[in-house]
Structures are given as structure tokens and as C-alpha cells.
Amino acid sequence: MAAPKRGRSASAQSKPGRSLALILIAIVAMTGGMFASGHTTPRLGIDLAGGTSITLKAKADQGAAINKANMDTAVDIMNRRVNGLGVSEAEVQTQGTDNIIVNIPKGTNSKEAQQQVGTTAKLYFRPVLASEPTGSAAPSPSPSASSSGSSSPNPSASPSVSASSSQKASSSGSASPTATATSQGRAVTDALKADSTPSPSGSASGGSKPSATPSASATGGTDTSQLQARYAALNCAKPADRANAGKKAKPGEPTVACGEIDKVWYKYLLGPAAVDGTEVKKAQAVFDTQGASGWQVQMTFTSKGAKKFADITGELAQKQRPQNEFGIVLDGEVVSSPFVQRPITGGQAEISGSFQQEEAQNLANMLSYGALPLSFKEDTVTTVTAALGGEQLRAGLLAGAIGLALVVIYLVVYYRGLSIVAMASLMVSAMLTYVIMSLLGPAIGFALNLPAVCGAIVAIGITADSFIVYFERIRDEIREGRSLRPAVERAWPRARRTILVSDFVSFLAAAVLFIVTVGKVQGFAFTLGLTTLLDVVVVFLFTKPLMTLLARRKFFADGHKWSGLDPKSLGAKPPLRRTRRPAGPAAGPVDPKEA
Question: How many whole angstroms separate alpha carbon 423 and alpha carbon 477?
């Protein structure tokens, strides 16, 4: 059994080029991916690029639990707000179980975004006066839309609003026809279904087009000429127009807004708010197991909201599309625009259509939380100018360069020729770290901040320590009188165990630090953990194979005084040689003189 083992060991030792080729292929592939993605530099954090970072800590509000669903809803609302203000590359993300980090880069509207983040979101139900697609072809209109001349999106694709099931059971009259809905919101109906046939009034009028100009009563007595001009000029396909649409509009005034339906942006002319989002007592997504509606959203209003909702649905039910729709407006953006077929009383309603489960749950969350589902307090606010960020980045790079230079000087003075192996390994580790950090920016939102730079600097020492452990093991073997090639192989198992234990402890410390901390300290922990893993990869796939190849070179194998492996300077013992025991004296008489 011993012979095959030696054969496998010899085979592994004779092909170190495979490991070197593997790590080279990995570097080339990741570098190609970096250039292909267009992200050739690591993404910089707020403290290096400049901007504002806000840490918000959640507090339970009115019995709302701090859980993943509520935190995700809050993140979605905040993200709509800061990016809706035209803040480029603003980030809102959860951290831990009860923290939200908002990173606002230095730029236009960043100050306003800082003021608004974490404040209560505003949700209103507004009657739709006119709507049409902008910037992209809309779905082809249904017969009812064309017969009435309405510019509303496809009615058969619109959600409908209806009374809840309990109300429908007690109401008289036939239920309205069923229709599918996917595009324009969901319809609010007494049966919560859309009518795909042309309305009687529409056909009777011979296809006359409803007036696009809202009446004074519909707009709360406001002069509509300026509003009509804003509506005509609005192009919701442009981010700047979307950010400014309905900006600073008061609830009692008409306004314009944008909404995205099936990846098509629509512009809306909306009347004054009829129902406030805070008057929605409860909203939940449920699956209709009795009918064909699938997922739907059930709403329950407060007593005050129920009366308002009954009044507005009574008015809208008498109109043609799109003026029988109401827009559900969250922070100035229309998130749904269901239509109404009959008045809805009793304070309960359903919104149905071709909902997917996630879509229904998202709408229910928005309706439930006209305000954020949780209250937040500012835990920390850090503002860094771009100039200060640049200075901190230069200082961090300078500190890293000084640390690297000191390590290199130590390696050259103490290990001489072996320093070539160490410096080559450090270069490979640095390349892998740079490329991976560049790729992680667009992949998971990783941003290189100042603590992360510190983690990379600390990693230089961790990586150099692994080389030193291996080099000292090789020197120990040479001191025992072995030649270089067997010393390289015999030293590796002992050094490998030490390196793995050391890196495991470093990685464990980084993981614990990442889990128990928040904010920028996590950047330090993440970088430290990443570079520790890369240290293992580099030592196993680069340092050891390279050392095996160099052991075959005469400069190192003969122990040149500048190789760092000179047996004399290391105090090596003479080679152990086996000698024969001298033969015993031959039998016979003893010479008296010798005796």
C-alpha cells in the first residue's frame, strides 16, 4: 500500500503547473467579466466618494411588528422617495433586523432627499380626469375605449373595484360580467370585475369623446389652463418629468402624476384627493377560492373613510372611462388605477384582476401603510464632502502602500530569494481582491469605504504571515540536513495545518464582527473575511506550486547564499549517512604484542 501512495505524491509534485494554470484562468475570466460589465473600479462608499449616509432604527408603531415584511415595505417606500427626487444611485437597504441604511451620493436634490427619508409616506385616492401612455406604445384599446374616444389604457386589462364578498351576497341586482385584468391597475366594482363591452352611454353617443378638460367642480374650482398645459407637456418616459410630476401638490388641489403599467409609463390628470390613505383601516391580499378572480386585495375603511369612499365611487360609477377610475397615488406616483361600476358602501371593497401573489401583497402593503409601517429614528447621520472623501481615500491608499513596502523590505532582508515567491503571491492576492471588489459593486451593492480599506491593509499582514509559516517550515527541514526538494514537500503538511487554523480564526472573527455590528464596521469585517479566504486560495494554488517549481532550479536547490535557503547560514546539520558496522576480529591465536 505504501508504494501507490508514494506514486500519487510524486505525481502531484511533478505537476504544479496545473494549479498555477487554474488560478491564472480564474484571474483572466474574472478580469474579462469586470471589463465586460463596465465596472473597472470598485464602487466607493459615501465616506470616500462624498455624500450622506443615514442609519435609521425601526420602532414598532401602533402594534406593528418589526419583521421582514414591514422592513421591506419601508425600504420600498423610502426607495421610491429618494430616487423619485432624481438622486442618482441612491441606495436604501436593510441591515440586521431593525436598521435601514440610506446612502445618498453627493448631487442634485440630495439635501431634500435627506430631509424626506424616513418621514411618513403620503397615499391618496384621487379621481382620474384623463390618462394616456407616454414614451412607448400602449396596449391596443378595447372596443369600449375606442367607442368613447377615451385615452385610457385597455379597459379589459384594468383592475376593478367592487364591494366585498359579504356585501355582494346581500346586494340586489345582477353581478357585472367577469373580465381579466393585467395592465392598468385593477377595477373597483360592486362585483370587482371589469365590463369589456362598450357602455350604453358610449354607444349611444356615437363614440363621442369625453371632454379632456376637467370641469371646475372636478378640480375643486381651480383654474385648469395651467394644469392642462402641464399635463400636455408631461412625458413620463423621462425620469426628470416623473420626479417633478405632482411635486408639492396639495391634497385639495388637482395635479398630474405618472404610473408604470406593464412596463409602459402613463401620465394622469387627477382631481383633488377624495380619500386619504390613512383612512384605510386594513388591506390584505387574499386568494379567491370560490371564484375565478385569483389573487385580490381586500380593503376595510375607517368610518370616516367609508363615507368618503361611498361618495366618490357613487360619482365615478356614473361616468365613462377613464373618468370612472380613481388613482391610488403613493408619494406622487400612481401605483394602481382601478375603475368603478357601481357605488360601494359599507366600508369594505375588493380590488381584483390578473394579480400575481407578490403583486397583490405589494399593493396591499401600500394601501395598509399610507404611512410607513414602522416609525424610524435617526441613529447616525454622516455627511462627507467629495474633497474630504478623496483625501481619506488617498490617506488610506498611502497607509496601504507604506504597510506593503515595510512587508516587502522585511521579506527581502530576511528571506532574500524567497521574497520573490512572497511578492508574487501578494500581487496575485491583490489582483484577485481588486477584481472581486469591482464585480461585487454591481452584483450585491458592495461599496468600498474607509474601514474596508483598513481591512485590506490588515489582510496584507495575514497573507504575509502564511508565507512566513511555510518558509520557516522549509528552513526547519533544511536545518535537519535534507535537500530542498524533499524539504519543500515535507514542510507543506505541517505548514498547511498551521495556515488553515490561523485563517479559520481570522475568518471566524470577521464573520462574528459582520453579524453583530452595523454600518461601516461591517465593511471592515467583510473585507477582512474576503481577503482571508483569498489567502487560502493563493497559498494553495499559487505559493505552494511556485515553490515546488523553484526547488528544481539550481539557484535555490544548491542553496545559494542569496536564495534564503543557504544551509550554512541556517546552521544545517551534516547530511545523515548510514555507515556499516566494522566486522568482528577473525578467530585465531592472538599476537602477544597486540595483547
Answer: 23
Alpha-carbon radius of gyration of the chain: 37
Sign (positive or negative) of CA dihedral 65, 66, 71, 77: positive
pTM for this predicted structure:
0.53
As averages over each run of 10 residues, the pLDDT of the chain (595 residues) reads: 44 71 93 88 78 81 73 78 57 83 68 61 84 61 30 47 47 29 35 32 33 47 74 87 79 88 86 86 81 79 90 88 85 83 85 76 70 75 72 81 87 88 91 92 80 85 88 90 89 93 93 82 89 93 92 86 82 58 54 49
What is the rounded CA–CA span in Å between residue 589 and residue 269?
133
Measured distance CA(576)–CA(166) in Å, rounded? 97
Strands (E), 1-144: 51-59, 91-95, 99-105, 123-133
Spatial distance between the Cα atoms of 145 and 156, rounded to a whole number of angstroms = 9
Q: Alpha-carbon distance 564 to 555, whole Å?
A: 10
What residues contact residue 204 under an 8 Å CB cut-off, 6+ apart? none
**Residue located via cell numbers 402594534:** 63
Cell numbers that stand for 262 in this block: 406593464
Query: Cell 487554523 identifies what position?
Result: 501
501 CB neighbour count, 10 Å cutoff: 10
Task: Enter the C-alpha cell of residue 266.
Answer: 402613463
- Rounded CA gap, 382 and 495, in Å? 45
Give, in order, the Cα–Cα distances in Å from 366 to each of 122, 142, 369. Answer: 10, 29, 5
